[in-house]
Records
---
Amino acid sequence: MNRAKLIEQIRLKKSFLCVGLDPDLSKMPKHLLASEDPIFEFNKGIIDATKEYAVAYKPNLAFYECLGVSGWNSFQRTIEYIPKECLIIADAKRGDIGNTSSYYAKTFFETYNCNALTIAPYMGSDSVKPFLTYPGQVGGCFGDDFKSRCKRFSVY
């Protein structure tokens, strides 16, 4: 996924819809809790109901990571199920020293094939640069002063 393909999807679907996938087990319909993978089943239902309009999906990693290996498996199944024409944004809010950030980038861009990742620039440019070494991938900066910290890291 690149900018041109995203714009193409926006025009085709006449939509800017980005669907957050924040599967909270405590708020999930009871019938799904009996399934082998309630997180995936919940997400699958949302994806099926929105794929005609959505141009992006944004799974929030906190809801997956707290479940350990089974949560990571649900995350992987979810991103594999998302239609290929949609942007996948890993809402992970990562940011650390350069070497660690390099491995976070590798995890989401290579292992999980996400198109974009939310990042936290609090530790300065060293924590952001590794995410920008992947052509066509996007790191989104968030924080109190994200505009001043991220303007020099524009990917478009």
---
Amino acid sequence: MRNTQAIIRYTGLKNLTSSEKRTAEKLASQYHAKIQEALDRTTTLKFHFKVHDEEGKKKKYSVTVETVAANRQPFSASRADWDLARTMHRALKYLEREIKKKLRTDDKGIGTKRARTRIRK
């Protein structure tokens, strides 16, 4: 039986407000299921949050996400933006795309030479 327990670790949550924490945890749990399915094994997600320019009216957020799965290479993604939800979406979408790109099984001929066909008139 597969262990599907969500293992998500956060660093830097103390710099976020309570509503930002709820948003971060909600998005992390949504994407965790997708990433775990793409890797086809139990996966731990590590999030690192940084908040820049806290004195001004707006805050800039940096999010770094890393996957840890048994017998798999680690994947990571970093993004920064002025909106936390948008930053997390961008980082997690990029991470998901990288995982699918590295682990795809169908060979589309990338890196191999193809026979040239000439069109004769």
